[in-house]
Amino acid sequence: MLTAIKERTNVELPFQTTSVFQPETILAVKNLEIFYGEKRAVNGISLDIEKNSVTALIGPSGCGKSTFLRSINRMNDLIPGAKAIGEIIYEDLNILSEDINVVALRKEIGMVFQKPNPFPKSIYENITHGLKFAGIKKKSKLDEIVEESLRKAALWDEVKDRLHKSALSLSGGQQQRLCIARTIAMKPTVILLDEPSSALDPISNAKVEDLIVDLKKEYSIIIVTHNMQQASRISDKTAFFLSGDLIEYDSTETIFTNPSVKKTEEYISGRFG
Ligand SMILES: Nc1ncnc2c1ncn2[C@@H]1O[C@H](COP(=O)(O)OP(=O)(O)OP(=O)(O)O)[C@@H](O)[C@H]1O
């Protein structure tokens, strides 16, 4: 799929491509620094994100989790004065390169935000909006993708009889699954989730968590969460951030049962943050 980004951007690859990845790595982050004006919010972090896994980003408020997450699909470009230095390598390309086609990138690396943000349109149109923009016009094809995306987001059975009703008539939890379906419809490889269930009631939260675990079969998922139980329930790897530094990154089991760094243990046991 990324060939599309390459073709559209004509990026010259400045590095050898085949040796960059370990077999299961989908994103390789190298010496990533992110600034807002003069202020550095992420201090030169390096980590590999595994394919078909859930990676949780945890840490106290203001430690740089969302800033890092947004850099992965270049959402920080929308913030005046924001600047990223270093490399985020995805399928042989540095995502941070000026030549990257960010529209194509954001289709492959989709994002779902904390507050459900469906368009004030029908459920059907919420899914088809981006597809039409991408040039898919045929009704039968659109119908097929709508059903497929809603099924994958575990929402089809609840909405199949009201596809042309307003998305705003859905509950908060359903709206968030619709936003996930909207992202899935663009056929991403990576899904970024910024506290996707923190605004939801416990039952909707549980549905979204089940969905995330299910989705990792097909997608690589990176989730920012303040909820330690959530991180331990659904993620395979956990990265602990503090003041813009990546303090510890390991399997979720290790982070929660036997962390190497004292600060990690203090944070997950609720002693600060
Ligand atoms: N748009 C912005 N302009 C300037 N500074 C920003 C901006 N967004 C974030 N920051 C700063 O960057 C640092 C990291 O913020 P970020 O939102 O990434 O942290 P976070 O760990 O995601 O926090 P939270 O858990 O509260 O969402 C903070 O000091 C924050 O004030």
Task: Explain what you see.
- The chain has 273 residues and is of the alpha/beta class.
- It has a single domain (2-268), classed as P-loop containing nucleotide triphosphate hydrolases (Rossmann fold).
- The chain has 11 helices and 10 strands.
- Strand 4 and strand 5 (93-94) form a beta hairpin.
- The longest helix has 14 residues, at 139-152.
- The chain binds adenosine-5'-triphosphate (ATP).
- Adenosine-5'-triphosphate (ATP) binds at residues 36, 41, 59, 61-67, 79.
- Adenosine-5'-triphosphate binds next to helix 2.
Give a concise summary:
The chain is an alpha/beta fold and 273 residues long. The protein contains 11 helices and 10 strands.
Label the CATH architecture. 3-Layer(aba) Sandwich
How many strands in all?
10
Bound molecules: adenosine-5'-triphosphate
Please indicate the count of domains: 1
CATH topology: Rossmann fold
| Arithmetic mean of pLDDT | 91
What CATH first level would be assigned?
Alpha Beta
In spatial order, strands of the major sheet run 6-7-8-3-9-10
Helical content stands at 25-40%
| Contiguous uncertain segments of 5+ residues | 7-19
Percentage beta strand: 15-25%
Q: What is the CATH H-level superfamily?
A: P-loop containing nucleotide triphosphate hydrolases
Radius of gyration: 19 Å
Globally, the shape reads globular
Distance, first to last CA: 40 Å
Structural class by SSE content:
alpha/beta
SSE string, helix = H, strand = E? Answer: HEEEHEEHEHHHHEHEHEEHH
The number of helical segments is: 11
Largest sheet: 6 strands, mixed
